[in-house]
Structures are given as C-alpha cells and as structure tokens.
Amino acid sequence: xxxxxxxxLKAIRAGKxxxxxxxxxxxxxxxxxxxxxxYDWALLDMEHSPNELAxxxxxxxxxxxxxxxxxxxxxxxxxxxxxxxLDLGVPGLLLPMVETLEEARAAVAAxxxxxxxxxxxxxxxxxxxxxxxxxxxxxxxxxxxxxxxLETMQAVDNSVAFADVKGVDGVFFGPAxxxxxxxxxxxxxxxxxxxxxxxxxxxxxxxxxxxxxxxSDPAFAAELLNDGFSFVACGSDAGLLAxxxxxxxxxxxxxxx
Length: 257
Hints:
The chain is α/β, with parallel strands linked by helices. The protein has helices at 7-13, 28-34, 53-63, 79-87, 101-110, 136-139, 153-157, 175-181, 191-206, 218-226, 237-254; strands at 18-23, 41-45, 69-73, 92-95, 145-150, 170-173, 211-214, 231-236. Helices cover 40% and strands 16% of the residues.
C-alpha cells in the first residue's frame, strides 16, 4: 500500500483552479452533508471554530469517501499541534498569522521529519494506515500541502519573500484580518483591502507561488480565480445554514395573508 497522491497539491502546482468551502460547524454529521457536493478542497477550521482533535477526526473520516481534499487550519502555528494533525492524516495545513520568514520556515519545519525538520516520529498512526503504508516516511513531505496565511499589513508587505521559502506550497490572504490591521474592521469586501492585497498576490503569482483566499461573494470568488488565484473558498457551511434558514423563513412569512 502506497501513500495517496495529494490531488489539491497536484492541481495548484499545475495551475488548475481549485474551488473551496469553509467548514466550521465542527460536526462530522455536517461534514458528511457537504462532502459529496464536489468542492475541490475544504478548509476544516480549528482557529475560529469549536473544533478539537476528536471532532476533527470525524470530519476527516466523512471526507475520506470523496475526492475533496480536506485542509486543516490549526488555532496557531504550533509545532506540537501540527505534529498531532499530521499523525491524524491531514493532507494539508493552513497555518494562521504568519508574518515573517522565520515563522514561515518554522511552519515548514514542523511538517518535516529530522533531519529536515522537527516533526516527531510515530509508527502506528492513522496517517500511515496504522503501519500499512510502506512508503509513508519517504513520501509524506511531498504529499502534504503547507499553506501560510497572511493576516497583517506587515505580512502582506513581506509577501513576495515567502515565495523563496522552501516547502511553502501556497500563500493565503486573510482579508478580514488584513482589513482590521488597516483600520477597516468587519468589511472584508472593502475595495481598499483588495487594492492592497491584489498587487501582492500578483507579485507572488509572477514568482510561481499559488495564492488563495476566502470570500463570501461567489461572483468575486470567480473573478479572483479568473485573475490567477489558485485556490479560493467561496463560502462556509455556517454561512450557508444561517442564510438559508433566514431566506426560508422570510419567504414563507412573505406569502402569508
């Protein structure tokens, strides 16, 4: 038995657009409802959701039956948390609040076994099908997506330099936090934010670095993908549930006499 190829990594390296969904309800049952939808990738969030390892495991199991690649965002760029997530078999990580080259290099090192990094070695884990994947140690670094998230003006200003950090597979722009750092809180679609992000994104694209983001406007998501963004999440499970329930209620109320 050999390690499965990472379809998301293969796609962004080949320049293929990847449409994603943010998964934040922290429920294996909810994950099972959205997993068959056919998104290219899904972000399982631990930073701004009540997810812990046990609930995350159930969501990974729900997605395992479908082609969608689950990417996990831990609550911090933490070596110990990254080790535990990789042992669970997470095929990709989005590391939050990376501002400096040192933090980017630390993120990569946490995903690498010695002598290339600091990941602790375990033998019988879910990631290697409990010892059945014979090429796991040789192949896992090639099949694990390491994405770094830029959330401050400092990080955006440093963005082009991240293209030179070996092991970083993609750069993700967080418009809500970048906007907050600019003094624009709670309005991630503000044109000032995107006028600041897009030149940095294009500079990274010119260096061959895949870039991504999350937006809640499907038309803008498509615009970014058509403009060269490699991976864009176009909504969230929580947002779909909230908006859908509001719309359903208002529709019925609007028809009452």
